[in-house]
């Protein structure tokens, strides 16, 4: 009896278990996951306190600290996803995986799952430390915080799909893209400043970047107490488009790599 949904879930769970074993077997990995968000929080927290006299409303509302934590959810989700994929390349295990009945979308689902777990391990401790250190709790945003977080995670996964597609097609020579691409959109994401700060031509580009809507919505909530659902809808809609583009890029690269026998050489 054919049970594709059941067998798919088993394959995804098995691959997720593999990544969990890798994570559990190395305590420095776990420490590192939580280290960078916490360090960024501390640095930006003290920067916020320093500028409190210049812009008291930023300090009172915790805008900068909240922006740091929320932005890091995009970076962590992307890096966690891509690093898990890179571990398959470094160990030259990708060909072994696809000798099995594993399908590309099942690999994507397992990478997204471990990415979410690693992101939460990194972000939650930093968010909790912000409360005693700086008196700022991002959890006070309530449900909108989840919407902001998920939009940035989805954007991070979309970037990861493109990067892993490039890696599977061109190998480890493109490894540096893991770190480059998230920062490419940072200036037009308007993380720490409103979109009006940008020159007009950059505002046009920012209007097509989902992250700019997320941070505009966050500032509106923290500074004006207004939840802009229209901004969240725009962000989510753009992220669906990005995910579709990312998935297409990955599948085109995967089929090309399989056709040219590159899966056996992709770790070299």
The gist of it:
This protein is mainly alpha-helical and 268 residues long. It has one domain. It has helices at 4-24, 27-50, 56-61, 63-90, 94-99, 104-134, 143-170, 177-189, 200-206, 210-224, 229-259.
List the helices and strands and how they pair.
Elements: H1 4-24, H2 27-50, H3 56-61, H4 63-90, H5 94-99, H6 104-134, H7 143-170, H8 177-189, H9 200-206, H10 210-224, H11 229-259
Helix pairs in contact: 1-6, 2-4, 2-6, 4-6, 4-7, 7-8, 7-10, 7-11, 10-11
Keywords, separated by commas or semicolons:
268 residues; globular; 0% strand; mainly alpha; 11 helices
Description:
- The protein has 268 residues and is an all-alpha fold.
- The protein has one domain (4-264).
- 78% of the residues lie in helices and 0% in strands.
- It has 11 helices and no strands.
- The longest helix has 31 residues, at 104-134.
- The termini are far apart.
- 37% of the residues are buried.
- The model has no long low-confidence stretch (mean pLDDT 84).
């Amino acid at each position: 009896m054919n049970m594709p949904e059941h067998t798919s879930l088993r394959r995804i769970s098995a691959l997720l278990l593999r990544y969990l074993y890798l994570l559990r077997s190395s305590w420095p990995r776990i420490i590192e996951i939580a280290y960078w968000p916490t360090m960024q929080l501390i640095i930006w927290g003290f920067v916020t306190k320093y500028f409190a006299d210049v812009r008291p409303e930023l300090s009172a509302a915790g805008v900068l600290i909240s922006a740091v934590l929320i932005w890091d959810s995009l970076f962590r989700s992307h890096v966690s996803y891509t690093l898990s994929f890179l571990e398959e390349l470094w160990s030259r295990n990708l060909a072994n995986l696809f000798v099995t009945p594993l399908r590309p979308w099942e690999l994507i689902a397992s990478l997204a799952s471990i990415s979410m777990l690693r992101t939460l391990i990194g972000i939650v401790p930093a968010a909790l430390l912000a409360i005693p250190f700086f008196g700022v709790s991002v959890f006070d945003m309530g449900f909108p915080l989840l919407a902001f977080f998920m939009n940035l995670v989805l954007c991070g996964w979309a970037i990861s799909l493109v990067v892993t597609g490039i890696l599977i097609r061109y190998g480890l020579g493109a490894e540096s893209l893991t770190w480059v691409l998230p920062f490419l959109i940072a200036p037009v994401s308007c993380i720490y400043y409103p979109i009006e700060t940008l020159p007009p031509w950059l505002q046009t580009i920012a209007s097509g970047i989902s992250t700019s809507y997320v941070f505009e919505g966050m500032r509106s909530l923290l500074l004006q107490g207004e939840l802009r659902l229209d901004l969240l809808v725009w962000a989510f809609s753009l992220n669906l488009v990005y995910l579709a583009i990312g998935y297409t890029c990955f599948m085109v690269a995967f089929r090309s790599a399989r056709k040219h026998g590159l899966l056996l050489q992709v770790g070299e």
